[in-house]
Design a protein that fits this description.
245 residues, mainly alpha
Length: 245
């Protein structure tokens, strides 16, 4: 993460206007902070309700809430990074390369190490039905690129990381704290995969978060990377070659 302490180098093209701070328009500064606190409180409620009622995932609801939140702030998804990075050739190339790199790290480094340390495999029972089933695999690939790649990047990297950083004036330290806090939540959201899955998904989320920051807070590159990595997982499961299944 390059740039000065005020966060300019982390992506000036998508930096939001959240008030001028205590030394400027104090009323607007406090309003932006309370708005961020309120939004994150609603997000917490969504997670708690989901934990108890087990309705269909949190991503669609968080995505809808994020869109409403941005509308209230008179912002678009483009303002927090939903656009190409420099040009489409670089955007796609970086996304594909990062996705393959992250997938390799998961399959050959993080997941085996966690399994050895914790002496338990990740829980992938929900995905066993994909093995050899082309119809379910194709449906899963559609969901991979919509709910997982697009939806989760918009929610976690695009929306939540920005809201947490808002609380601390979007400084370098604020983005680091945001990266950690948001991806603890990202890992917990994958609790159905067991403790290994929770930690591993949290690590993968942090890698995607770093990619978001390093590409000047661009969402298109992490979306492609996420989709590529998950597509590899789905194809390996379909072929019966995914480790541990």
């Amino acid at each position: 993460m390059n740039g000065s302490a005020d966060g300019e180098g982390l992506g000036p093209a998508v930096r939001e206007n959240n008030g001028s701070g205590p030394g400027g328009d104090t009323a607007n500064w406090w309003k932006s902070k309370w708005l961020a606190v309120g939004e994150l409180s609603v997000v917490a409620v969504i997670f708690v309700v989901h934990k108890h009622l087990h309705f269909f995932g949190t991503t669609p609801y968080l995505l809808l809430f994020g869109w409403i939140s941005l509308r209230v702030r008179k912002l678009r998804w483009r303002d927090i990074g939903l656009k190409r990075f420099r040009n489409w050739k670089i955007t796609v190339g970086l996304g594909v390369a990062a996705g393959l790199l992250f997938e390799g790290f998961e399959l050959f480094v993080s997941q085996p190490l966690l399994m050895k340390l914790l002496r338990t495999p990740p829980h992938f029972e929900d995905f066993r039905s994909l093995t050899g089933n082309l119809k379910l695999t194709l449906i899963s690939l559609v969901l991979t690129w919509t709910l997982a790649a697009f939806g989760e990047e918009m929610v976690y990297r695009g929306y939540l990381m920005n809201r947490v950083a808002d609380l601390m004036n979007r400084t370098r330290v604020a983005w680091i704290i945001s990266l950690i806090v948001v991806h603890v939540g990202f890992g917990i959201a994958h609790g159905y995969q067991g403790i290994v899955g929770v930690i591993d998904e949290g690590l993968q989320g942090m890698l995607l978060g770093l990619l978001y920051l390093r590409t000047e807070r661009n969402l298109s590159v992490p979306i492609i990377a996420h989709g590529i990595a998950d597509t590899c997982d789905v194809v390996l499961i379909f072929l019966g070659k995914y480790p541990g299944l």
